[in-house]
């Protein structure tokens, strides 16, 4: 099984690109805090490379900026390539399968705010079904 769940903050604004076959793709990094403090009493972070494709990539590029907090579900993938100096390079990254927008960083300050939640309209779902009926709880007697 290859499944990864991460919660972290983006390290820069996400840029959208397209492959030669016109598939939307974005590569980005999220900073994931560790659960323990270092010798100086500070929390450290791991910087995790992520790749998203298609609609997920488009949504990330449209709505996510540097510092926004995301929940990511994906899988780890490794690949290799040869750089311009003919050296073989290896890359490990998370291929994003789904995302959740958790928190946006405020534009004018260093504080953050929770992502806005849409409220369901307060309407009667049975309003179109005719007259109201009263049910007597004593009908079993």
Task: Explain this structure.
- By secondary structure, the protein is mostly beta strands.
- It has a single domain (4-114), classed as Beta Barrel (OB fold (Dihydrolipoamide Acetyltransferase, E2P)).
- The chain is built from one helix and seven strands.
- Strands 1-3-4-6-5 form a five-stranded mixed beta barrel.
- β3 and β4 (43-53) form a beta hairpin.
CATH architecture: Beta Barrel
Which structural class matches the secondary elements?
mainly beta
Strand portion: over 45%
The level 1 CATH classification is Mainly Beta
Number of E-state strands: 7
Question: Any idea what the CATH superfamily is called?
Answer: Nucleic acid-binding proteins
Unreliable spans are 116-121
Radius of gyration: 23 Å
Note the gap between the termini. Answer: 57 Å
Shape: globular
| Mean pLDDT score | 82
The largest beta-sheet arranges its strands as 1-3-4-6-5
In short:
The protein is mainly beta and 141 residues long. It has one helix at residues 54-63, and strands at residues 4-10, 17-18, 24-37, 43-53, 69-82, 88-105, 112-114.
Characteristic terms for this protein:
141 residues, mainly beta, OB fold (Dihydrolipoamide Acetyltransferase, E2P), five-stranded mixed beta barrel, 7% helix
Give the SSE layout.
Elements: E1 4-10, E2 17-18, E3 24-37, E4 43-53, H1 54-63, E5 69-82, E6 88-105, E7 112-114
Parallel strand pairs: 4-6
Antiparallel strand pairs: 1-3, 1-5, 2-3, 3-4, 5-6, 6-7
